Structures are given as C-alpha cells and as structure tokens.
C-alpha cells in the first residue's frame, strides 16, 4: 500500500522507509521544509519539499493517494525545540494542517507519533493508558494539543486517527551527532571529556531507535479499532544510565559528577503500555545493548569528524605556509636582481614582504616571514668582508627590530579586525534576515490590501463584470467566436498575451486558431495533445494548469473548454506581472473557460455540422462557397491582429483529371490547412503561416509537378467585401 511519511529525513525516517520497502509498501516523504536535502534516499519513491503549513498539502496528498499517513510528530527532528514557545505554535499549526489536508484528500487512516512527555506533570507512579495527562512545558502542551485535535477529527470508518505515544527514543536521531536526547548527550560528554554529569532522581523511560520503528510497523499492520497505543520503555534514573555507560566504555578513567537538583519535570517511574497485549511486541534491545550500539556509532562518527577537522586545519596551514614561502622566494629574487642599485639601497623589500604576510594571515605567519627575512639578511651580510662588518652596525639590528615590530603590529591589527568583521558579519546576517522577514510581511499585507481594494472598491473583476465581457461571444457568428475569444480572454485576464488552440477532427493535433501577440504564439502553430504533454493531465481532469516554476518558455495559465468531456479548445495566457500569478487569477481563468465554453462549443459544433456539406465526398477539398467563408473569417482575424495566413492558387490544365491531382495536394499540406476548388483551379489557405513558411508548401507541390503561386484574399472575397 501507499504510505506518506510526514517527517524530516532522519535516521528514524530512514529506518522506517527501509522497513516499508522490505514489506513491499510504496513510501512517499513530506519533509516539512521547502529546501531539499543532500541525502540519498533510495527507499523513498517520491519526496515533497514543502512546509507543513503550505496550502498545497491537500493537493500533494491527493496526488500521492496514500492509504496511510504517518505523522512523525515527536519523532520529527525538524522541530528542534530550542525556542519552545515559537516552535509550539509552528508545531500545532503544522500538525493541524496535515490532519485537515489528510481528511480533505480522502485519506482513511492516520498514525500520529506522540510522546509520554505529555505526562510530565503527573505524580502517579504508574501511568495507565487512560490516565489524563498533565502537561507543563510548551513542548508537552503542543504534543497534548495535537492529540486532542486527533480525537476531534476522528470519524470511525471514514477517518481513523491512531495515536502512538513513544518514550524517549535514543539512537542516531537527526543528522550527524545530535545531543537532543539524554543518551546522546551523556555519550558525547563521555567521549569528549571523560566525564558524565547526571541529575539524581531524574527518571527516564528509554527505547532504542530500531525498537521504535518495530512498534510503529506493528501498529501499521494492525486493523484494531483502538485509537491510542502507549509504549513502555526501559525505566531508569539518570544515575543508572550513567553507570551503564561507564560499564560499556573501554576508558576506565570516566568519572561521574552529580548535578544539583533542578526544578525539572521528571518522567513517570513506570508506564503501563499496550504493546504487549495488543501488538505482541517486546523490545529486542535491552538498555545496555542499545547504549553499546549508540556508543560505537558515536565513537566512529566523532573520530571521523576529528580527523576531518585536523586534515582541514593542516591543509589550510600548509597552503598558507607554501604561499608565504613562495612570496619570500619572489622577494628574495627581486632583492638579488636589484642588489647594488639605488632601488635596493632605498627600499627594504623584506619589510614590504612582512607587511603583506601580516595583512594577509596575521601574527603567526608575520613572525614566520620575519624569521625568513632575518635569515636572508644575515646570509647577504656574510657574502663579503665589508658586508660582514655591517653586522656590528646598529642599523642592521634596527632593521631586524623594525621587521619584528611592524610584523607584530600589522598582524595584531589584522587579527583584531578579522574578529570584529566576523562579529559584524554575524550581526548583519541576523539583521538582514529580520529585514527580509519584515519586508515579506509588509509585502504580503500590501498585496492583500491591494487585492481587496481592487475587488471591493473598483469592482473591476466582479462576477458581473466578467460575465458581461464573456457574454459578448453569445452574439457573434459561430465562425468568428473562436478568433474573438482570444480578445475576450485577454480583456478578462487583463493581459496582452492570449492564444487559443482548436482541436482537429482527424488527429490529436490542436492548431493555433488565434493569438493576441507574438509572445502568445511561442508554443508553435500546432501541438500534439497526448499524455506526453506536461499540462495534459491537468486539462483532462478539468483543472487549470499553473506554471509554478515561472518558466518563461511556458504559459502562466492554461485552461480548456469541453464538449462531452472532450477537450475542444485550449486557452493559454502569459502574465508579465508576477503579482498577477496567484490563486485568485487561476480561479478567474477557470471561470472564464466555463463562461465561454458554451459559445466555443457552439462554434465547434457549427463547424462539424457544416463539414459534410462543405467538403467533396471522400476528400479534404471544400466546396468553393464554404471555402470563401473560411477565407473571409481568416481575413477578419488577420485584420484584428489575431492570426496570419497565406493563400495559394493552383492552376490545373484542362487535360489533367481533377481527381488525380487531389491526393497530391492533400499530401502537401497540413491537417490544419484548408483546400478549396473552383473548376480546374484549386486554392489553399495555410493557417498561421507567413510567406516564408509558405515556401515549404510551394516546394512540396513543385516536387509533385504542381505549380502554385501566392495570391491575395481579394481574388476570392473581393476588395471591399467585409
């Protein structure tokens, strides 16, 4: 069956997805974040990166069509609870939206993962499944509030919500080493500092990660009508937990330190569970076995992290030393090359070298550069007797002292301003984030204000106004409706770029019937409407396609009109203003399509009704009277700037049978083009084709020994005919 898991991808989620795949379930993942992850999740069939508060969650659940939705809740590491008050608001709103979306999408079953933290204020020694929880902290209150919401949304047989209360789950929860649970915190403290701090009489109820996944799978496989499952963990206090860690540690120098008793909320001493009687489940891992696995994994990850840290630091130091040495070699070569000149006597290149290194890397590398420069100066002084005597000159020692003083001072200023800039950068980043949030809130409020002002004050896009515009089509001739519909849609949607494609009776291709601008016709003169088309599914399901990726090569909105559940016409709209791309405009588009559907269906039905009388039997050649009406309609569409066409004339010698030429003409043109006949003369109307594109048709006719020429429409309908 299909299972939708609502949780950040952590080790709990990874283990759960492996189990689901092993038991041949198809797993979908809703991560609760709009940002993708870098992890590889081969056991996940499809990932959705949306926040839990997103308005599209219902659509996601409809698309995934899950049989069961598992809400991670207390097991979801997306909620860090660092700022418990704000996180509680986010948690409750997100879980509420998930429950509402699941119910709206028709999901039959939901499993919500809660925690026995809801009992933190209970004083009973034994917590029973029917014990009323007393929650004190923001986190516990949030868990309890969602449990109450689950009970309110419950509809037996239609929408079943099951609550699974977990104890403290320990293991590798989240990415990297996370110290959010007590076991991981104590383990990392023991590995890094060889000490474990604990609170006396602080009770805990613990369950290993794999066992937590096992009990969740047991609940998933159950068809019980029970709505609450309470899981027992290994009951112990923090002192027992610390002693267990000391026993499994190979380092016997680990010491225990007792903390002062804080006013915390102790877990109940014992929890009466429902897993043994209902789920036939017993934990596979004892507390000592689970801690041993956790310790081994933590040790391995910490060792790898330390190795990477040392490697990175050593690599950075090596690069800096190499750059310093390289610059010193360049300085040395310049000094040797200019030795004996007035430049060398005037400028101390080694001083410049030390200043550059100090400004770039700080005090340590400035001292290293000073050492190199001092050695170089001494070597130069030993090259001759005269220079050797300069070693006794106080000016030589002053130059060395100058290098040291300048290097240290400049390096100190570099390090100082580096720390200051880092602090300013952090503060600036924080303020920029705050400014972005305030700007977003202000923009949202301003947009809402403008929308309501536009709707209520101006009454511009009211239903009456839209109906007044679209009703124009009801009074037009059927042949003109298809072309004028583009203007009606453009006027209603307040845009300049609208294109309308009409279905072909003989193929899956839709031909461009009208476009209000060059931009609107960029999808081509014809398109094949089948399953491979990216908006096919939306139109077949009578929905409006919305270009959420804002791809400039695609229309912003795509709708359709229907006749007997068959797509008659496709309407495409391009929006230039991004503030017009919203759900309201999408609804307006849907309304426009429905209001003009009757007129469009009437036009298409009219075309089909006259088809038998308009065409010669067994061919695509139209009678000249019907063809003249087509030319007149296209001429009016071109005058309105809605389309373009090219008219060809083909003279057939009287000695050539007309019926012998018709197949060659039909093979030379598209299904969307029109052919008319008057005696031995044929006319071809190339829809949505300019003179350059008509050259291809002329060449195809020429290859079949048929000579045609381009003519104006006046040759058929007359110069003054409107």
Strand content: 15-25%
Q: Give a short account of the largest sheet.
A: 7 strands, parallel
Could you tell me how far the N terminus lies from the C terminus, measured between alpha carbons in angstroms? Answer: 64 Å
Given the C-alpha coordinates, what overall shape results? Answer: flat
Radius of gyration from CA coordinates: 39 Å
Q: Estimate percent helicity.
A: 40-55%
Number of helical regions: 23
Task: Average the pLDDT over all residues and give the rounded result.
Answer: 79
Structural class designation: alpha/beta
What's the count of strands? 25
Low-confidence stretches: 173-179
Q: What spatial order of strands do you see in the largest sheet?
A: 3-2-1-4-5-7-11
Name the features.
50% helix, 23 helices, six-stranded antiparallel beta sheet, alpha/beta, seven-stranded parallel beta sheet, 722 residues
Topology:
Elements: E1 2-6, H1 11-22, E2 26-32, E3 46-51, H2 57-64, E4 68-71, H3 84-104, E5 109-115, E6 126-127, H4 138-153, E7 160-166, E8 168-170, H5 182-193, E9 195-198, E10 203-208, H6 209-221, E11 228-230, E12 234-237, H7 238-248, E13 255-258, E14 270-271, H8 275-279, H9 287-337, H10 342-346, H11 349-361, H12 363-381, H13 385-389, H14 394-457, H15 463-470, H16 478-493, E15 497-503, E16 509-515, E17 526-528, H17 536-540, E18 545-546, E19 557-563, E20 566-574, H18 583-609, H19 611-614, E21 621-623, H20 624-639, E22 645-651, H21 658-668, E23 674-678, E24 681-687, H22 691-703, E25 708-711, H23 714-717
Parallel strand pairs: 1-2, 1-4, 2-3, 4-5, 5-7, 6-14, 7-11, 8-10, 9-13, 21-23
Antiparallel strand pairs: 10-12, 15-16, 15-20, 16-17, 18-19, 19-20, 22-24, 22-25, 23-24
């Amino acid at each position: 069956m299909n299972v939708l898991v609502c949780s950040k991808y952590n080790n709990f989620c990874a283990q759960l997805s492996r189990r689901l795949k092993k038991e041949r379930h198809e797993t979908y993942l809703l991560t609760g974040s709009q940002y993708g992850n870098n992890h590889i999740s081969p056991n996940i069939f499809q990932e959705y990166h949306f926040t839990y508060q997103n308005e599209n969650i219902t659509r996601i659940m409809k698309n995934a069509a899950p049989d069961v939705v598992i809400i991670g809740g207390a097991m979801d590491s997306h909620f860090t609870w660092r700022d418990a008050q704000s996180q509680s608001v986010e948690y409750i709103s997100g879980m509420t939206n998930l429950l509402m979306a699941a119910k709206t999408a028709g999901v039959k079953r939901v499993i919500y993962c809660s925690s026995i933290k809801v009992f933190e204020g209970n004083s009973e020694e034994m917590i029973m499944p029917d014990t009323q929880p007393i929650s004190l902290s923001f986190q516990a209150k949030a868990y309890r509030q969602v449990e109450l919401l689950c009970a309110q949304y419950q509809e037996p047989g239609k929408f079943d919500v099951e609550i699974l209360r977990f104890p403290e789950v320990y293991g590798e929860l989240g990415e990297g080493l996370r110290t959010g649970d007590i076991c991981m915190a104590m383990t990392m403290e023991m590995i890094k500092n060889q000490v474990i701090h604990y609170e006396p009489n602080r009770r805990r109820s613990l369950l290993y990660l794999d066992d937590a996944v096992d009990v969740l799978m047991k609940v998933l496989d159950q068809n019980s009508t029970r709505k609450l499952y309470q899981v027992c963990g290994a009951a112990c206090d923090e002192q027992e937990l610390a002693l267990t860690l000391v026993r499994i540690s190979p380092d016997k120098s680990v010491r225990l330190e007792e903390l002062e008793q804080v006013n915390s909320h102790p877990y109940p001493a014992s929890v009466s569970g429902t897993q043994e009687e209902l789920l036939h489940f017993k934990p596979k891992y004892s507390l000592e076995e689970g801690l041993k696995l956790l310790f081994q994994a933590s040790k391995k990850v910490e060792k790898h992290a330390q190795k990477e840290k040392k490697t990175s630091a050593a690599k950075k130091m090596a690069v800096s030393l190499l750059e310093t040495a390289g610059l010193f070699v360049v300085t040395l070569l310049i000094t040797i090359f200019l030795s004996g000149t007035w430049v060398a006597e005037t400028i101390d290149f080694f001083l410049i070298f030390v200043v550059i290194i100090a400004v770039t890397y700080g005090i340590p590398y400035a001292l290293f550069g000073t050492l190199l420069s001092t050695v170089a100066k001494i070597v130069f002084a030993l090259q001759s007797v005269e220079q050797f005597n300069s070693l006794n000159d106080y000016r030589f020692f002053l130059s060395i002292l100058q290098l040291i003083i300048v290097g240290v001072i400049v390096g100190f200023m570099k390090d100082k301003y580096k720390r200051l800039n880092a602090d300013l950068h952090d503060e600036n980043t924080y303020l920029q984030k705050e400014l972005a949030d305030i700007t977003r809130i202000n923009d949202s409020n301003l947009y809402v204000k403008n929308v309501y002002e536009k709707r209520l004050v101006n009454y511009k896009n009211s239903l009456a106004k839209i109906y007044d515009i679209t009703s124009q089509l009801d009074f037009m001739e059927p042949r003109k409706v298809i072309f004028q519909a583009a203007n009606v849609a453009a006027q209603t949607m307040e845009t300049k770029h609208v294109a309308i494609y009409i279905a072909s009776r003989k193929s899956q291709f839709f031909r461009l019937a009208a476009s209000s601008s060059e931009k609107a016709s960029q999808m081509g003169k014809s398109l094949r409407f089948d399953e491979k088309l990216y908006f096919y599914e939306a139109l077949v399901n009578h929905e409006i396609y919305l270009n959420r990726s804002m791809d400039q090569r695609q229309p912003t909105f795509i709708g359709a009109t229907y006749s007997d559940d068959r797509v008659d016409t496709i309407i495409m709209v391009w929006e230039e203003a991004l503030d017009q791309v919203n759900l309201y405009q999408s609804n307006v588009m849907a309304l426009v399509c429905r209001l003009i559907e009757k007129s469009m269906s009437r036009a298409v039905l009219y075309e089909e009704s006259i088809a038998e009388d308009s065409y010669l039997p067994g061919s695509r050649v139209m009678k000249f009277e019907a063809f003249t009406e087509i030319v007149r309609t296209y001429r009016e569409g071109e005058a309105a700037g809605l389309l373009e066409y090219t008219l060809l004339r083909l003279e057939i010698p009287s000695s050539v049978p007309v019926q012998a030429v018709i197949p060659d003409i039909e093979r030379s043109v598209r299904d969307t083009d029109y052919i008319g006949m008057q005696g031995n003369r044929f006319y071809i109307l190339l829809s949505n084709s300019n003179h350059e594109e008509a050259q291809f048709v002329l060449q195809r006719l020429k290859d079949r020994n048929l000579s045609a020429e381009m003519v104006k429409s006046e040759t058929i309908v007359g110069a003054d005919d409107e």
